[in-house]
Write a structure and sequence with these properties.
Length: 463
């Protein structure tokens, strides 16, 4: 399946993409996503369109409550993660796109996209997927290395050299990075030689012109200059109409597009200070989302600093503090949401998870009980309740939960293996070794590499 530029698409489709760029500038994300999704169905190898789609997806995620979007994503995507893209890359590509539509920050989805693109012979899309993973996790060595290797396959030695350079900053004597740098340097030299040997001077200029057009076609995200201009215009309107909430919203939207989150939060708070904005629930939600996004951004920055300077205790302490603040903010937001919407049982499942992560198992159990009323999260809520009871050493009650979850899960996927493992672990803690080993054998028969099941089975037979 070839990768194609925008210029090779039907002129009517090109016009739609052009309109999508304008829509992106104006914040009409639904239009952008509708158009790009339709185009990619017929032209999955058009990377510029995929890039445009990703920008819109990330902005849409930023405008939503990330906490609940990610919680729903983890539930709805659970069934997608165990197929792989090697056997049927076209199906895997479709699955990856569905997952990314739900959560564009899903690393498993991006990995599946890379695997599917590789099977469909779309090397630039493979590199795009690994680069997206690297942007989400700058300290992830594997993602950066895979990005560099993918750039080599895509005949982009300069980008491969850049990846190798970043890897060596993380670890100066990284053997894989040094190997990547050597291969990229050779590829770049070969590329230069091909240029010198290829055709007439006029042909070379024609190729260079086409390359420039392709590069420009891929850069279809909103320019910072245009966004800043829109912000300035909104600020001028705000001076003339200081009580108009729509002008505040335009300013906030612009700053969010530029990723200037502190400035965006400043104007949200100014809007909320107005009599007309005090009772506006959308502004309250926007302020909450921005505070969360600012903390997430801070965590990523600190993670990069820690990765570069792991011995720096000050960076490590700052990262730990930022993560604590983020967890506290998430918990406070989830509590407030459930107080407003007590019958949103999926939200209660999210709140139960946050209580569990905070070590508050009693409140986790209470919310997991309520969450079981939602069929979409029922099994996960039962499992969560079992783990919370296990953490409180109420092993007999935990066993009952895990047995229920086990009986309601039809196939032997990773979720069911996890449930059976937890059930066996409870039996071990109760001193019921026969029952425990019987459960471990079920997993062993299906997946010998799951956790430490092989070690447990081997120890049992050795004794």
């Amino acid at each position: 399946m070839p990768e194609i530029p925008v210029s090779s698409l039907d002129p009517r489709v090109q016009k739609q993409i052009e309109n999508s760029q304008i829509a992106l500038q104006r914040g009409n994300l639904d239009y952008v996503l509708d158009v790009t999704t339709q185009v990619l169905k017929s032209a999955p190898g058009c990377l510029p369109v995929r890039r445009l789609q990703r920008v819109a997806q990330l902005r849409q995620l930023g405008s939503k409550n990330k906490l609940f979007a990610k919680a729903f994503g983890s539930v709805t995507q659970a069934g997608f993660l165990f197929g792989g893209g090697k056997k049927d890359p076209s199906k895997a590509l479709e699955t990856a796109e569905k997952m990314l539509a739900s959560d564009p920050t899903s690393v498993p989805a991006l990995k599946l996209l890379a695997e599917a693109a590789q099977g469909l012979d779309m090397p630039d899309t493979v590199a795009f997927a690994w680069e997206a993973i690297h942007e989400l996790n700058p300290g992830d060595r594997e993602a950066l290395l895979n990005f560099g290797e993918a750039c080599l396959v895509a005949k982009r030695p300069k980008d491969a050299l850049r990846a190798a350079d970043e890897l060596l900053k993380l670890k100066p004597q990284d053997g894989d990075a040094l190997s990547l740098m050597r291969k990229a340097a050779i590829a770049q030299t070969t590329e230069k030689g091909n240029w010198e040997d290829k055709g007439s001077f006029r042909d070379k200029l024609k190729d260079e012109s086409q390359s420039t057009m392709l590069e420009q076609a891929s850069k279809i995200v909103t320019s910072e200059e245009m966004t800043q201009k829109l912000i300035d215009e909104a600020l001028e309107r705000l001076k003339m109409q200081p009580d108009n909430l729509n002008h505040y919203r335009s300013v906030v939207d612009g700053y969010r597009k530029l990723n200037k989150l502190d400035e965006a939060l400043e104007y949200v708070e100014k809007a909320r200070a107005l009599p007309s904005g005090a009772a506006d629930t959308t502004l309250a939600k926007q302020a909450s989302d921005l505070r969360t996004a600012i903390l997430e951004k801070r965590i990523k920055e600190l993670e990069s600093q820690v990765a570069l300077s792991p011995e720096n205790a000050e960076f490590a302490a700052a990262l730990a503090k930022a993560k604590r603040e983020f967890a506290e903010t998430q918990l406070a937001e989830a509590k407030a949401y459930v107080e407003r919407y007590p019958n949103d049982y999926a939200a209660r499942f999210t709140l139960g998870n946050l209580h569990f992560e905070a070590g508050d198992y009693q409140n986790a159990i209470a919310n997991y009980q309520q969450a079981q009323k939602n069929p979409k999260v029922r099994i996960s809520a039962i499992t969560g309740m079992g783990k919370a009871l296990k953490a409180r050493k109420m092993f007999d009650l935990a066993v009952a939960q895990f047995q229920t979850a086990k009986s309601e899960l039809p196939g032997m996927d990773d979720l069911k293996k996890d449930v059976i493992y937890e059930l066996a672990s409870c039996y071990e803690s109760m001193g019921k070794k026969t029952e425990a080993i019987a459960e471990y054998k079920i997993i062993y028969s299906d997946d010998i590499g799951f956790r430490d099941v092989a070690d447990k089975i081997n120890a049992f037979y050795s004794s």
